[in-house]
Amino acid sequence: MSTYKNLIGKDVNFLSTDPDNDSAEGQIWYNSTAGAFKDLLTLNAWSNGGSLVTEHQETSAAGTQTAGLCFGGRPPTAGIVATEEYDGSGWSNGGDMNTARRGAATFSASTQTAALVFGGAVDPGVLNATEEYNGTSWTSVNNLPAAKYINGGAGIQTAALSFGGYSGTAALATTEEYDGTNWTAGNAMSTARYSLASAGLQTAALAFGGTPPGALAITEEYDGTNWTAGGDMNTARRYAAGCGTQDSALVFGAGPAAVVKTEKYDGTSWSETADMGIAQKNHGGAGLQSAALSCGGESPTNSRRVTQEFNNSVNVITAAAFSSGDNMPEATSKVADGGTQTAAVEGGGQKNNPDSLPTSSSEYNGTSWTAGNSLPSNYGSNTGATGTQTALVTGGANNPTPGGTCEYDGTNWTAGGTLGTSRYGGKTLGTQTAAVTCGGRVSPPTLNNVEEYDGSSWTAVTAMPIATREQGGFGTQTAGVVVSGFQGPSSPPVSPSPASRGALGFDYDGTNWTAGTSALIAGSSGGAAGIQTVGFFLAGGNPGLSPALITTSQTYDGTSYTTNASVARSRATQFGITSARTAAVGTAAMIFGGGDPSNTPQDTAATEEYNVATTALNIKTITTS
Question: What's this model's pTM, rounded to 2 decimal places?
Answer without folding.
Answer: 0.88
